[in-house]
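Are you able to produce any protein sequence you like plus the matching backbone structure tokens because I've never seen that pairing?
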Amino acid sequence: MSVPDDRLDVLGVGVSPVNMEMAAAELHRWIAEGRRSYAMLTGMHGVMEAVRDPKVRAAYNGSGLSLPDGMPMVWLLWQAGFAHADRVYGPDLMLDMFDRSQAAGYRHFLYGATEATLDALEANLLRRFPGALIVGRHAPPFRPAGAAEDEAVIDAINIARPDIIWVGLSTPKQDLWMVRHRPLLEAAALIGVGAAFDFHAGQLRQAPRWMQRAGLEWAFRMAMEPRRLAKRYIFNIPPFVLMVAAQKLGFRR
């Protein structure tokens, strides 16, 4: 099944009505055709960032794929009649593409996190997928990179000739990075996967599957990192629910 052109409008953010199989097939098509696009994980947090910042909203709506990363996006897609849609969870997408690419020979580049995280991530991925090709990695500084430094990283990535660049930064930092760097990078696909680097490096625990499917992953993650994530969820969940209800009732466009 091909990816539909129409997206579901969730508070001004278009969400692609896809599932894992459809997303993977589309990414394979980008690589085969050299399309040079980017895919974003679309969850409640990202949508609320887009509501507050037009640049973030433009990043989502300019993406080649706006993947339903959170169960609220999936439920809204189902309500809109997209029965085939399902969650495309960033960590699962990363594993799926690494697995599929062993036979295809795709080249991967890891961008994000810290050197220690990248060490563990690369080792774990190659242990699980011995046929995968990781051709480079970069842990960006926590401060803004200077122009010369950024240009050197771009050159290094292009010299490595990856097919896929995995971007493991926080939302919306990774999204704005992909938009800004997409014209400068030759890789076919840029994919922002957020905390997937930390999960697959073994540095963060993932929520049990039943909590993920029930839309309760936020509660698990907040319990694991209360100081970092409590504010995010407290200031995002109530307004998201109210705004979506207002949109459905016709009070908000």
